[in-house]
Amino acid sequence: MQHAVGAPLPPPQGPGNGPAGWTHQAQHPGHPGPPGPPPAPQGQGWTGPAPYHAPAPVSRETTGHVQLPPGGPVPLPAPPAEPGTGTATLAVLLIGPAGAGKTTVAKLWASRRRVPTAHVSLDDVREWVCSGFADPQAGWNDHSEAQYRLARRTCGFAARNFLANGISCILDDAVFPDRPVVGLGGWKRHVGPGLLPVVLLPGLEIVLERNAARSGNRRLSDEEVARIHGRMAGWYGSGLPIIDNSTYDVETTARVLDDILARSIASPPAW
User: Fold this and answer.
1) What is the Cα 199 distance to its own chain's centre?
2) pLDDT digit string (tens) for 216-259?
3) Residue 135 to residue 144: CA distance in whole angstroms
4) CA 162 – CA 156 distance, rounded (Å)
5) pTM of this structure
């Protein structure tokens, strides 16, 4: 049979082209086209494809087996049934001036726990910005404040994400008692009232000595260290637990931190 040039060809005939009345449509490359007829039920001697089963709907609360953080804030943890923080899943904020040893103590405390515990340093998160990093040491302005707020919100989401999956989290930041922008209010907003703050505040001479051992943009001038340390003294009388680790090594400080956190769980500080 002859067909005019450009005229559509009739659908091919033969076995496998569908039942009577079913019309085959050409498909564009990469386009799945309309679905074909459903396969017949399987039975004795059936050799065709298996029936298609639609996948179960995925909950919006999960990505694979990872639970997304709930919309609500982190609540207070239940008191542990053993000495120290035991197996409690908790969020901790370790506060202190530059050179107090926050990051070192937080890492050791997290690594010595018997349950999964993560450590997130706000300074590390701020420095994720490579091009265009607004270093607060070059001056506190709208740009550096915006990046600080962004880093704090990112840390808060990370903490809630870890806790939603049964992993404790300890954060560290130089939070000032007399400066709302760099204060506790933002941390409570992004993590929740279950966040347990502890202040690490050794003597000025210890902070100056530790700061001198730093390098890069983490090292501050002695004048700046003294100014920050003086403002941190405002935490005395705030009701927050304070650790003077001037004479403690890192391991002792981490042990004292765990004891204080256990008491904070049983009797949370007002903040």
Assistant:
1) 22
2) 767 778 888 898 899 999 999 899 999 999 999 999 999 999 99
3) 6
4) 10
5) 0.72
Low-confidence residues of the chain: pLDDT under 50: 3-7, 9, 12, 14-31, 40, 43, 46, 48-49, 52, 55, 58
Report which DSSP code applies to 233: G
DSSP bridge partners of 170? 92, 119
Sign of CA dihedral 66, 108, 189, 152: negative
Q: Say if residues 79 and 89 touch (Cβ distance below 8 Å).
A: no
Measured in degrees and rounded to the nearest 5, phi and psi for residue 267 equal: -140, 85
* Angle of CA points 155, 216, 97, to nearest 5°: 55
Three-class SS state of 93:
strand
Nearest in space to 93 (alpha carbons), one of 191, 219, 210, 18: 191
Spatial separation of the C-alpha atoms in residues 151 and 157, rounded to whole Å: 10
Instruction: Say if residues 230 and 208 touch (Cβ distance below 8 Å).
Output: no
The dihedral built from the CA positions of residue 144, 230, 181 and 262, taken in this order, carries a sign that is positive
Q: What is residue 196's DSSP assignment?
A: E
Helix H or strand E segment including 243: strand 242-243
Question: So what's the pLDDT on residue 29?
Answer: 47
CA dihedral 191, 110, 94, 202 (to 10 degrees): 180
Handedness of CA 27, 30, 35, 41 (dihedral sign): positive
Give 79's contacts (C-beta < 8 A, 6+ positions apart).
Answer: 88, 265, 266
